[in-house]
Amino acid sequence: MLFTTRKDKKLKVVYLTNIPAPYRERMHEILASCVSMDYTVFYCSEVEPNRKWEFAKGDYDKVYLSHEKNKMVHNNSNVVKYLNHYNPDVVISSGFNPTMMYSFAWCVARGKKYIPFTDGTFDSEQELSNIHRLVRRIVFKYSSSFIGASKGSSQLYESYHIPREKIFQSCLCVDNASFMNNLKYKKYDLMFSGQLIDRKMPLFFAEVAKKVRERTGKCHVLILGDGELRNELLKALLKFGVTFDYEGFVQPSRLAQYYCQSKIFLFPTLNDPWGIVANEACASGMPVITCSNAGVANDLVIHGYNGYIFPLEVDVWADHISYLLAHPSKLSLLSENALKQVKNYNYQSSVHGILKSVNYAMKAATLPLNVSGAVLKRS
Fold first, then answer.
1. Within a domain: residue 207?
2. Which domain does 116 fall in, by range?
3. What pTM value is reported for the model?
4. pLDDT tens track for 247-260
């Protein structure tokens, strides 16, 4: 059976976001295959200068509001023209930049449904200015339902007094199967993957590795990523006597071959609304050690189950890492649990949350929530 919202007419949905991301492409493809929905993604730009991703774009309808590649583009007034042309019933918007606000105003003026999507959390937005908070209050007042990437996102919405029944979760995820590997020998004790910038704390990682080497007699680490702290990080590791392989920035299609070679993934951060690297690590069977500043904490990463959540104290991290490296059975248990935990973070679950939010906004169960099988295949 095919579901429609109006006689002989599909529900039209536009998803508005900044740029294509490799970990969201499959989700868009699945949503686009829903026979009850005409789904299009609007991108502010094709690429941003701080992103080096190279990946195949998904098979779904997409519009690039700008083709500028040398600067951030978040003020696309032409979005109104495209909205007038597509005339969607629902707009899902993933931010609060000017382009998103144009789409919000368009929805209010046209009586269309507006759904904000955020990967932010209650903790990650504590430093917002009063103006930013006011903008959110106005947008939330006129929104039909709400989508968040995590439990922390739900907590954020609830802090604005949004009723729980209006909040739906669409998790951030990776292709879990592509990271699974039965490689028994792990070459590296620790792994770091991310931008080599202050917020990602690569120098904290180096300090932890130093302490682990002092406690265990050795520490061999793998580092993926690039950034302004690259040289400082590598010099610190050499100074500390930590052996390492530095691979620089690695394209998404090649990540799995590196993750499978490491025992423990370290994810320190000053502020990360989520942290897709933790998905990649868990899908590779690696326990993750992180802090409460990461959105994955107490969500994807459960303390003592598939990793640990510690304060940013070098000795605390080093003590527990040293213990794990000396007790392979405990490390193996955490690894097994990492694989179990990440199974819940998949594209089907991500799509399910978006469909539920759209159905709620339309006040009817108009879209099939079973996102597998023929009901979602293009004819």
1. yes
2. 11-173+346-373
3. 0.91
4. 999 999 999 999 99
